[in-house]
Amino acid sequence: MSQVNTPAAEENGTPSVKTSAKASLEDYFAKIDVGPVPPKSDPPSGDGEADTEGAASDPPVNPFEPSIYSGKAVPVGGGEVLDVPIPVTIADSVVEYEVTTQKYDIGFGVYAERMEEEMVVKETSRIQSHTNPVKGKFLVQTVPCMLVFAFDNSYSWMREKRITYTITVTPPSEDKHKENRRKLATKGLEEVLEDLGRSEAGHAESVQRREELDLEIRALQAKVEEKLGDLEQVVRDEETFERRINLSKLLRDGLECRLEGDFEDEEAGKFKGW
Fold first, then answer.
1. Tens digits of per-residue pLDDT, 226-271?
2. pTM
3. CA 73 vs CA 131, 165, 189: distances in Å
4. Residue of 102, 214, 220, 217 lying closest to 162 (CA atoms)
5. CB within 10 Å: which end of the chain, N or C, has fewer?
6. Is 160 exposed, middle or buried (0-12, 13-18, 19+ CB in 10 A)?
7. Rg, C-alpha atoms of the chain
8. How far apart, in whole angstroms, are the C-alpha atoms of residue 226 and residue 31?
9. From CA 60, how far away is CA 51, in angstroms rounded?
């Protein structure tokens, strides 16, 4: 018997502990808290008869009892595909099917839809269900999901086919279901605690590194303040030396002028260069 892990299922069926919003938390616990839900299904339209025991209008008293979906001589027009949706809400449910057709073969496949994704349970192929009933069985482990039983007559444009099918969804016992939920919750708790430990260790390391960087920044700020004080002193020294240079140049020019003129300015009563 094959097993079906529907799309978007996490490893070991345990939802990821990485949550970033309220919606993510709701999705996380929805996977943990999923419980038995009375199946809902719309019988395919047509001239044939379809019966959906356990449908929304007549749910089973015990949701852990098998749900049977059946159709008798349901027509599938030429060039058409008939999809029969079957919801599965309890993990480890066993799905069995039996398909027969009148006179002719038909394409048949099974697909699982979940979280807007789809996976192939049975690839669509033509089956000789008009000669012998076609039977199959598989296990659905990740829920909730919608199984789609596809009856494909698209290759036959002129010939209508009539199909008779019985699909039985048998959930595990209530005790088994609770045990599975307990295992799922336990596995989830282990992963949450591991993630919590890693997060707390990472947080402590981040706090320590922040404190170290804060001390380094404070030390650098003090150094910068010291250097700014040195810079102000250097600027003051620079201005002092510039004033002294300018004064020295004036004195130099005046003295050179007097030496070159042999102090003639004194005789004329003129003081040049002062």
1. 999 999 999 999 999 999 999 999 999 888 888 887 666 665 555 5
2. 0.54
3. 15, 9, 50
4. 102
5. N
6. middle
7. 44
8. 61
9. 14
